Amino acid sequence: LADAVASAVAAYALSEASGSALDSIGSRDLTDNGTVGAGTGLFAGARDFDSGVPEYFSRASEATFVFGDENFTMTAWTKLEDKASSHGVIGKFEVSDEYACYYSSASDRFLFSFTAQTITGNTFGSPSTGVWNLLVFGYDADNDQYFLSINGGAKDTYSTSSGITSSASNPFLIGSVRTGLFPMNGLIDDVVLLRGYVLSATEITELWNSGTGVAFADWDGGGGGGNRRRRFLIMCA
What we know:
By secondary structure, the chain is mostly beta strands. Helices cover about 10% and strands about 35% of the residues. The protein has helices spanning about 1-5, 200-210, 225-235; strands at about 10, 30-35, 35-40, 45-50, 55-60, 70-80, 85-90, 100-105, 110-115, 115-120, 130-140, 145-150, 155-160, 170-175, 185-195. A hairpin with a 6-residue loop joins strand 7 and strand 8 (about 100-105). Residues about 220-235 have low confidence and may be disordered.
């Protein structure tokens, strides 16, 4: 995973006790909507979302969150607390269908939707509640394929030469697909966005680590943590 660290454009450990979701790489912190809670994460703390409020994080669209016909990968860990309704993990669907990864109660699968198309996580199948799941999804522009991998498994793919149709009107969300649509009921931990990089099958297996996972802070034996330390020094300067 060391090669992927330099391609990270935003990373959210989601270990805060309350308040905003802090970007460990730069200054792209996410606003807390609905007072997102906190809970025990896979690595340390995680943020605990209540769909009844709803609770989610958001930030207005900017270049960091906009992808076109280029390689990119997003990773997120999530633990569902129920499957009675659909639950958003990451979304940029506010005005138009840009990209979103979520659990669908209708299909009982994790899905990756993008520009009016959808990949269904059939290779993995039905997820369980109360356990951590690793979602890895994005676009392989070199091979013209969108992909979704769950818990270190083989990628489900959709072949097309068209990249993401982007929109400056869609905010970036964690914990929902769009405001009021598929609010998360459960926990989310360690979200990472990579630009210009597609995680290989070997790297995804390494990240899954038999379910134990590898936090972004440890992707290169300290690279993620180094980013956090650099941000701390800048803030204190």
